[in-house]
Structure formats: structure tokens, C-alpha cells
Amino acid sequence: MPDALDPADPDFARDPYPYYARLRARGPAARVALANGTHAWLVTGYEQTRAVLADPRFSNVPPRAAGRPKADSPAQRARACLARHMLNTDAPDHTRLRRLTSAAFAPRRVDALRARIAELTDGLLDETAERLRGTGGADLVDSFAFPLPVLVIGEVLGVPEADRADLREWTYRVGSPAGALEPGAVDEAWSELYRYFGELITAKRRAPGPDLFSALTHDSAEGGLDDGELLAMAFLLLFAGYETTMNLLASASLLLLTHPGELAAARRDPARWPAVVEEALRHASPLEGTTWRRTTEEVTLGEDTVIPEGASVLAVLAAANRDPEHFPDPDAFRPDRHLPGAARPAPHAAFGHGPHFCVGSRLARLEAAVALPLLFERFPGLRLAADASGLPYRPGLLVRGPRSVPVTAD
Ligand code: HEM
Q: Is the four-CA dihedral 257, 263, 267, 271 of positive or negative sign?
């Protein structure tokens, strides 16, 4: 019998790795009973994860929405619209959407954001310094890891400076855990985002700016994305881009605060920062699992693991990234694995694999490689103000990261 899995269990959220190691030992994929009464197949080995993500028999299209309530409030329309994004499509639809997005995220456009990311980080570190002076403590998630990616997505979408505070507030509300805020406040934020992105598209069509999103609206005039697709894309970029990067920044900060030797080494030799970022991506896997896949036919994995047609399958990136077959001593945080000249491990799977490989990987790496050194330069005496092993983690199988990283500074 497979172990039952409760993704809301706080102990599992904090440390899911022993559970995944047990599943991996069982074979290429394990059928698991979820706490909500459904079943799913979890793929936990490195090779098998990559094989599944590259195999078109594992579809990204969600089951038909038959029986779901009609989307007749603005908040429901916003949620329904978000579900139309390209992560929920297969070829050939996906190929077309992906081609346009990849062009907008061309390396030179992403790299041009470097100076702006540094400016935005400096602004947030000013706010953090004020908090530290005022109360003696700050939460790195609230003051650094959450707002920075939202502000950077603001740059990507070309959101005017005056609207950034609204974007930050709406995103905070729609991303808050269930029950944390008044339901009205969450619905209102969804509606506001929906209205705002609609207006933004009209404005960008009329007067495209230098931002990446304008490149997408511009292409659409030449037969690319329609309005609904653009709206879904704005939501996808916001959600795919902020929560993942927030978790990377929060987990990487926490790893450095708990591994002072690694922090000191990166300070001595700044060329180590990219390796720190790669190892944080591997070790802390900000996206714990990919989006759900569904088998379009019966599939046999390995010698005799048979997954039936129509099954829900999750490729668990966090587990693939701790597969001891590929990463010796997988639970250790060791940036030196990624240094040039090291006996290189296989590339990590934190950005996925195959046709849906992360469009924003270059941007996420850039953000972390710019922001983390600035954080630790500004506060050389930064210390964790809580027991690392007791910090709460986000529940669920999709994203993974600490909900707060409380710090003080000497
Ligand atoms: C540390 C940060 C990030 C991580 C770990 C991450 C990880 C991933 C992964 C694993 C996927 C594939 C999901 C699947 O196959 O189901 C993905 C897809 C995607 N990511 Fe990221 N991501 C990050 C940041 C970003 C950023 C900053 C952006 C854009 C601003 C972005 C945009 C996207 C988009 C648009 C897709 C869908 C690609 C497609 O369907 O072809 N991501 N990401």
C-alpha cells in the first residue's frame, strides 16, 4: 500500500525529503493516496523525472472543467482566465505561445534588467534597514524575498512606477494562504488584477514600451496572441515568476545564514555567487513539483511500473534534485559542486525539463545573483533570529519555501 500523503501537514511541508526518498526506493513512480481522497502517481528519480517531462504521453492539459460553477463574478473570471495559460497546453498550441514568449525573454532583454534589479534591491534594503533600526528585527520574506520578484515582474510587464504598490498589495493578497485574510479582500484583489491587466494590455498596444510584455503585445498585432491569451500570459508571468523566485531568495538566504562558512567563502570570492545560486536551486527546489501531468495512454516506466491512461502524475523536482544516483551526498548544501572545474554533477532539475522548461530561468538566476550579494554586503552582521528547524513552510506540493526568515543585525 502506498503511504498516504497530506501536503498540508506542517512536518511534511518543512521536510518532505525522507518521504520522497522512500518513494524513490520503490521504483520509477509510486501511486499515492492524497489526503483529499484522490490518487496520484509521484515520480521521484532524477532520470525518470526528466523522461516524463520530455514525453508527450504526459499531457499538460487539465481535465475538462465540466460541472464547475460558471465564472460569473470578476474574481472567478480572473481565476478562469489564469487557467488558460501556456503551462496548461500541449503542442501545437504550446509551441506557438512558447515561441512568442521565448522571443520576449531573449537573453539581451533579460540581461538589460541587471541595473534595475540592483536599484530595486537597494530600495528594499533601505526599508529593511529602517525596520531593523526601528524594532531590532525584520522578516526577510516580507521585506526582501516577496517584494523583489513582484517589483521585477512589474518591470517585465512594464507596470508604471505609480502602480507598483498596488501590484504588490494585490499579489500579496491573492497569494496569501487560505483563511489568512477576509475572503472579500482576496476576491477584490483578483478582480483588481484582472481589471488592471486588461487596461495594461490596451495601454501597451497603443504605446509599446521597452518592457518584455510590450514585445508580446506588439507581436500579437502581427497575428500572435489574442487578448485572452495576453491576459493569461500576464497572470502566468506574475505567478510563475514571483512565488518561485520568492522561495529561491528566502531559501538561499536561510541556507547562507545557517552555513556561515559558505557565506564567508562567497564574500571572499564573489565569483562563487552563481554557484551558491545553483546549489540553492538544487538543494531547496523552489518549485517542489511541476504542474500536474495526465497520461494520454497507458505508460510503462522502467521495467514494470504501469501507469494507466488518464492518471494524474506529478514530477517531483525536489526529489529529483536529491537523487543520490546523480548528486553524491544530496542533502548537503555544497556550492562547490557547481564551480567551474568541479567534477560536475548532472544539471539540476529546478527549472524543469522538456518543452515547458522555465522561460524565466535566466531572469530568476540574475535576480538571485544580484540581490543576494547586495543583501549580505549591506548587513554584514545579519543573523537568524529563530531556530531554523522550526520555521514554518508553505503547505502543498507545488511551491516550497519558508514562510518567514526572521533576522536581526549586529
Ligand atoms: C527560482 C525561480 C523559478 C523557478 C524555480 C521556476 C521553475 C519553473 C518550472 C519547473 C517550470 C516548468 C513547470 C512544468 O513543467 O510544469 C517553469 C515554467 C515556467 N516559468 Fe518558471 N521558475 C522560476 C522563475 C520564473 C520567472 C522569474 C518567470 C517569468 C517572469 C517564469 C516563467 C515561467 C513560465 C512562463 C513557465 C511556463 C513555460 C511553458 O509552459 O512552456 N519562471 N518554471
A: negative
